Amino acid sequence: MTNYLVKRVLGALPVFFGITLIVFFLMNMAPATIADAAGGGEASSAAARAALEANLGLDKPVPVRYLLWLKALLSGELGLSYRTGQPVLGMIGQRVLPSLILTGTGVVAAVAIGIPLGVMAAWKPGGRWGKLAGGLTLLSFSAPGFFLCVLLIYFFSVRLGWLPAAGMYSAGGGGSLGDLLYHLLLPAGVVCLSNLGSLVRQTSSACGEVLGEDYIRTARAKGLPEGTVVWKHGFRTALLPVVTTVLNHIPHIIGGSLVVERIFGWPGMGSLLFTSVSSRDYTVIMGITVVIALTVLATGILMDIVYRLADPGVGWGGEGR
């Protein structure tokens, strides 16, 4: 297992550096820089913009700037924000927890609802559970995130006035847990609905295949309770693809949801990324890219480990034993 992990990590390194290289060069292909955004275009002289670019190191060729950024990264530094002058690592650290709270709550709620609903839909596909699963899956896949945000804000904030439309805490609310949960319901609900469809569909599909197997019919013929047949024999066998679907949501939890955070004014990674892109804050964009890329690659390695632990026949060398 140790040798396998070493090989996977070494194999992921070129992918990681390739991602940073592509993002860095695409980012620097933008027609404007932080100097243009800060100077307001014509209101700032060309000399002032040139001085600001020289101060930030933007006057160097793009390959040189990437190598300098890479050197700082390998030494454990993500640089300073062009916009605020603060360390990028500290800015990201402040935004990770709010993103974890928001998207983590939404994904956990989606798992808690989607997996049981998917199993029930596979058990009785033509019944009310199957119809409910189909309706929620259709809503999840067909409705864009921004539409769900606007829809929930309109009904629960504007029309009914039950829930706040923006923010993580109320102004002067003291930052209590109850106030946090009060503001969390709407954005976490959008994240839950957005992720619910894939979980319901994958669970229903995997369990539907398993429940048609011969050993399931044998278990029923022996007189085992239906709940035992469905959950103990059916769901446990179909658990691996379901776990894979759940693990695929980990990068989303860490990286946050840009649309949801932006609309609801939630101070997470997604809103930080939006602000950084709008202001051409390249160092922060690259810092967020590093975090998300590492999370995606680590999740891929984790999924491989789960597959091999669940199916020993695969082996740690990639071949069956």
Would you write up a description of this structure?
- By secondary structure, this protein is mostly helical.
- The protein is 74% helix and 0% strand.
- It has helices spanning 2-27, 34-39, 46-56, 62-74, 88-123, 128-142, 145-159, 177-210, 214-221, 226-237, 239-247, 250-255, 258-264, 269-278, 282-310.
- Helix 7 (145-159) crosses helix 8.
- The longest helix has 36 residues, at 88-123.
- It starts with a helix and ends in an 11-residue tail after the last helix.
Summarize the structure.
It contains 15 helices and no strands. The protein has 321 residues and is mainly α.
Mean pLDDT: 82
What count of helical segments does DSSP give? 15
Strand pairing plus helix content: what structural class?
A: mainly alpha
Q: What fraction of the residues are assigned to beta strands by DSSP?
A: under 5%
What is the share of helical residues?
over 70%
Characteristic terms for this protein:
single chain; 321 residues; mainly alpha; 15 helices; 74% helix; globular
Break the fold down into its secondary structure elements and pairings.
Layout: H1 2-27, H2 34-39, H3 46-56, H4 62-74, H5 88-123, H6 128-142, H7 145-159, H8 177-210, H9 214-221, H10 226-237, H11 239-247, H12 250-255, H13 258-264, H14 269-278, H15 282-310
Helix pairs in contact: 1-15, 5-6, 5-8, 5-15, 6-8, 7-8, 7-13, 8-11, 13-14, 14-15
